Automatic annotation (TrEMBL):
Residues 1-25 form the signal peptide. Keywords: Amino-acid transport, Signal, Transport. GO terms for biological process: amino acid transport. The keyword Transport applies. The keyword Zinc does not apply. InterPro entries: BCAA_transport, Leu-bd, Leu_Ile_Val-bd, Peripla_BP_I. CDD domains: PBP1_ABC_ligand_binding-like (cd06338). Residues 30-379 form the Leucine-binding protein domain. Belongs to the leucine-binding protein family. Pfam families: Peripla_BP_6. This is Branched chain amino acid ABC transporter substrate-binding protein.
Length: 399
């Protein structure tokens, strides 16, 4: 009995001592970072990749002590692929959840909504996959999507430069595109670039985002007999169009996709030789970066356990990881969680990411165009342009 009383007395004394400690001696509250992702809806296939990347990055941060001595807690909400819902949820994150920092969502529409909220509350917004830089009017928004400030011109020029080196450069092109904002923007820019480069446009068709009936579009493309089909798609739209083409016994000689769902495109036989944009693929020279190599290993393992359609690190996963790298660099560089201090540091300094060294001193805080052209070969994405990023001298292939 005496032992029990002594034990209780010691415990009470310890509790009193802890209660009397100054706040600085107690464990600081977690740093709360809030964002939304399209966990359901038409964009979910790709957004689930972004969710897994964020989870990996937060775990890595906390394993090395968090940020400036505070553990990191990531609060992510489902915007259901709806920009208007993303706007509401970011309002909640700032006002109700009282998060310390923000991370951008996936896709241009949702990012633009989040940007409006961030501007209203003077919050930094690091974002990825924002395809219309001219719409980025907020000076505390920073992109991980390194396509330069004029992708309506530079992206199609990169595509046509790559195609010029193919065994059979295209002379005719069909443009079929979603009306999804950034996709539509780049498709319209590609039409102008193609015209200036002397390619003959044989078809132009549009569809509403969310469309699932691609039979009529496939038939029109087949009748046009283009050398190249420029497909302005996002998510599974490209797969659905290729499937519709297959049903009428048509295979395009060359087909470029703007933002395809990475796994489904490589896993489908119809995706053979599909072309797309990238900033990073899971091969040399990208994997020579030790941080990138470690991330690739972790992502492969976690994506396999999560049964994701694609377990490899490609453009979407890389953009997401780079966005977290930018936010971490801003906090550490400013040595502060103050949004204005973070923004000031990022505007003045370059940041090392797994896809390159980024600067944010151009229009809309965009820096260099680091986009490359990749192709599905043997069931995997490989860079085919520029040549110095092509593994083993990989060359562009034609169906």
């Amino acid at each position: 009995m005496k032992f029990l009383k002594a034990l209780l007395s010691t415990a009470a004394a310890s509790a009193a001592l802890l209660a009397g400690l100054p706040a600085s001696a107690q464990a600081p509250a977690p740093l709360r970072i809030g964002s939304t992702l399209a966990l359901t809806g038409p964009l979910a296939t790709t957004a689930l990749t972004h969710k897994l990347v964020g989870e990996i990055y937060v775990e890595q941060l906390n394993a090395k002590g968090g940020l400036l001595g505070r553990k990191v807690e990531w609060i992510v909400k489902d915007d259901q692929s709806k920009p208007e819902l993303a706007r509401t949820l970011y309002e909640q994150l700032v006002t109700s959840d009282k998060v310390d920092l923000l991370m951008g969502p996936y896709a241009t529409g949702a990012i633009l909504s989040a940007m409006g909220v961030a501007q209203r509350y003077n919050k930094v917004l690091v974002h990825h996959t924002f395809g219309i830089p001219s719409l980025s009017k907020y000076d505390m928004a920073f992109p991980a999507w390194s396509l330069g400030s004029d992708p309506g011109t530079t992206v199609p020029n990169s595509v046509f430069d790559a195609l010029a080196a193919s065994p059979k450069p295209p002379k005719t092109v069909a443009f079929v595109t979603s009306k999804f904002p950034s996709i539509h923007f780049m498709s319209l820019g590609a039409r102008e670039v193609a015209k200036k480069r002397g390619l003959q446009e044989v078809l132009f068709l549009e569809w509403d985002f969310g469309n699932r009936d691609f039979g009529p579009i496939a038939a029109r493309v087949k009748d046009a007999k283009p050398d190249l089909v420029w497909i302005g798609d996002i998510g599974l739209e490209g797969n659905m169009l290729l499937d519709a083409m297959k049903k009428i016994d048509y295979v395009p000689p060359l087909h470029f996709h703007t933002y395809p769902a990475p796994g489904p495109m490589t896993k489908s036989p119809d995706g053979k030789n599909a072309l797309s944009l990238t900033i990073f693929e899971e091969h040399a020279p990208f994997t020579a970066n030790p941080v990138a190599a470690e991330f690739v290993k972790l992502f492969n393992e976690r994506a396999t356990k999560a049964n994701l359609p694609d377990t490899s690190v490609e453009v979407q996963a890389a953009a997401s990881y780079s966005a977290w790298q930018i936010l971490e660099a801003g906090v550490r560089g400013a040595n502060s969680f103050d949004d204005k201090a973070i923004a000031a540091f990022l505007r003045k300094n370059r940041v090392d990411t797994i896809h390159g060294r980024l600067r944010f001193d151009g229009p809309g805080n965009y820096g260099d165009d680091l986009m490359k052209i990749k192709q599905v070969q043997n069931g995997k994405w490989v860079v085919v342009h520029p040549a110095q990023f092509a593994p083993g001298g990989a060359k562009l292939q034609v169906n």
